[in-house]
Amino acid sequence: MPHKRRKIRKKRGTRTVGWGRIGQHRCHGQKGGHGKAGRHKHLWSYTLRYDPHYFTKKGFYSPQRKKVNVMNVGKLEDLAGKLSAEESLEEREGMALLDLEKLGYNKLLGMGSVAKPISIKIASYSKSAAQKIEEAGGKIVKEKGN
């Protein structure tokens, strides 16, 4: 129940009721700023607690960058064995033909070694990969249209 000694009873009848001559108790809701304002100033403790990576470097992403899936020479025999077990390995000229493009690979690299002769279809490859495959008796197939 209101009683007559409350402060507001004194302020009744005045124009601004104790809130100054300009603002009239309005626009106090955004004193901290809008959105993420003040993260490096008065909201620094909030940033440290809840968003510590807000000011870290993020780098940039080049939209021209292409994803390159690579396969090493050392993994070819394992892959050929796996495909022959599934009976999806193609034979050409007495050698197993691995179509790495169809399997989702773009480039063949020369890490590892190969002992069996394998014929490989791939868009690009390194010099060392080509050399190791030729030493084993295999070859890299380039079909028309590539």
How does this structure look, described?
This protein is an alpha/beta fold. The protein has a domain at 70-141: Ribosomal Protein L15, Chain: K, domain 2. It has helices at 7-11, 44-50, 76-85, 127-135, and strands at residues 70-72, 90-92, 95-99, 107-109, 118-121, 124-125, 139-141. A hairpin with a 2-residue loop joins strand 2 and strand 3. The model has no long low-confidence stretch (mean pLDDT 87).
At CATH level 2, the architecture of one domain is Ribosomal Protein L15, Chain: K, domain 2
Largest sheet, spatial ordering of strands: 2-3-5-7
Approximately what portion of the residues adopt beta-strand conformation? 15-25%
- The CATH topology of one domain corresponds to Ribosomal Protein L15, Chain: K, domain 2
Shape verdict: rod-shaped
Which percent range fits the helix content? 10-25%
Termini gap: 90 Å
Class based on secondary structure composition and strand pairing: alpha/beta
How would you summarize this macromolecular structure in one to three sentences?
The protein is an alpha/beta fold and 146 residues long.
List the helices and strands and how they pair.
Blueprint: H1 7-11, H2 44-50, E1 70-72, H3 76-85, E2 90-92, E3 95-99, E4 107-109, E5 118-121, E6 124-125, H4 127-135, E7 139-141
Parallel strand pairs: 1-4, 3-5, 4-6, 5-7
Antiparallel strand pairs: 2-3
Provide tags for this entry.
single chain; 146 residues; alpha/beta; three-stranded parallel β-sheet; 21% helix; 16% strand; rod-shaped
